[in-house]
Specification:
With about 325 residues, this protein is α+β, with helices and mostly antiparallel strands. Strands 3, 6, 7, 8 and 9 form a 5-stranded mixed β-sheet that branches. A 3-stranded antiparallel β-sheet has the order 12-11-16, covered by helices on one side. The relative contact order is 0.11.
Length: about 325
């Protein structure tokens, strides 16, 4: 290809600027065909050229240990120990103050309950009846002592006594004098675990989840899950104003075949509760004869009908004992 030089105004030929740029490129980029570059790139991709190993000229520098206390370890330890000793001493001083001890004593008296009287009472036969109450409050009855037992109740107990009552009569419950109780500054249910004052979800006055002006889950002015007054949720005992039930109709027991063949005779003693409708309940064998006579006695007495026992002129459940005699003619 012919070269074309430019002629300047002064008649001196000038070179083409593109010629100067071309001199900056490597000769292979100017004279080498483009397809050879493509083949070279593919070859380098398949078989990359090996490069000489990299030589590291840097060397590790040792790091000096950093100290947080910077020589004040002993001082910091003594300061921490002094702070802890001071806090413990302050707590002991506050606990030794008489107002604090008096407050703790009052709280423990109201909340700590000795359940040994109740456990001992459960091992005995119930003295009869029960009761309950409440004021339809959302919380269960709170813990506290029982009011004084009395033969008549004029004022049901409350955990929050009414201020300035028109007729100040001490609250009471209808229960025996030996009913177990606890020591507390407020009235409540001794078997409860709630410390927040509440008369309970029952109704009719009293404290608990039942009704009737007593304490507990029963019905009446007594204490416990039973009804009609008294304590324990069981039946009344004969005596102390409680009359004995009497038999209205009875069914004679049959002899078992085994006892007849053995010519076996004797007496079966049964314990039962005659409820306020005159029906026998909870029959138990106190004295056994065997040979099938015990079962025959229970079957017969379960069909008996009684005139219920009375307390204050009202029918109440009464604990009774019956002897069933088996004799061969």
């Amino acid at each position: 290809m012919p070269e074309h030089n430019l002629i300047g105004p002064d008649g001196v030929p000038e070179h083409n600027p593109e010629d100067h740029l071309a001199r900056l490129l490597p000769p292979s980029s100017v004279d080498r065909p483009w397809f050879l570059d493509i083949f070279s790139n593919i070859k380098d991709l398949i078989h990359p050229p090996k490069l000489p190993p990299l030589e590291l000229t840097s060397t590790p520098v040792p790091i000096h240990e950093m100290k947080v206390y910077a020589g004040n370890e002993a001082k910091a330890g003594i300061t921490s120990l002094a702070i802890h000793v001071g806090v413990i001493a302050l707590m002991l001083f506050v606990a030794s103050l008489k107002p604090v001890q008096s407050l703790v004593k009052q709280q423990l008296t109201a909340l700590e309950v000795d359940l040994r009287p109740y456990l001992a009472q459960q091992q005995k036969q119930a003295s009869g009846g029960g009761g309950g109450g409440g004021a339809r409050q959302p919380l269960n009855a709170s813990k506290g002592k029982l009011p004084k037992p009395a033969p008549r109740q004029f004022t049901p107990p409350r955990v929050d006594p009414l201020p300035d009552p028109k007729l100040p009569i001490p609250p009471s419950i209808i229960a025996p004098d030996d009913v177990p109780n606890i020591q507390a500054n407020n009235f409540g249910d001794p078997l409860s675990r709630l410390g927040i004052p509440s008369n309970g979800g029952g109704f009719g006055g009293g404290i608990g989840s039942g009704s009737g002006g007593g304490v507990g889950s029963g019905r009446g002015a007594g204490v416990g899950p039973g009804f009609g007054g008294g304590f324990g949720g069981g039946a009344y005992r004969i005596g102390g104003g409680v009359s004995a039930p009497s038999v209205l109709s009875k069914v004679e027991p049959e002899y078992s075949e085994e006892a007849r063949k053995a010519k076996w005779q004797g007496t079966v003693v049964l314990q039962l509760v005659v409820d306020d409708q005159g029906r026998p309940q909870n029959l138990k064998i106190l004295r056994s004869l065997g040979l099938g006579l015990d079962q025959k006695a229970v079957e017969a007495v379960s069909h008996w009908r009684f005139k219920p026992g009375l307390k204050d002129g009202k029918p109440v459940p009464v604990l009774a004992t019956i002897e069933v005699n088996f004799r061969l003619l």
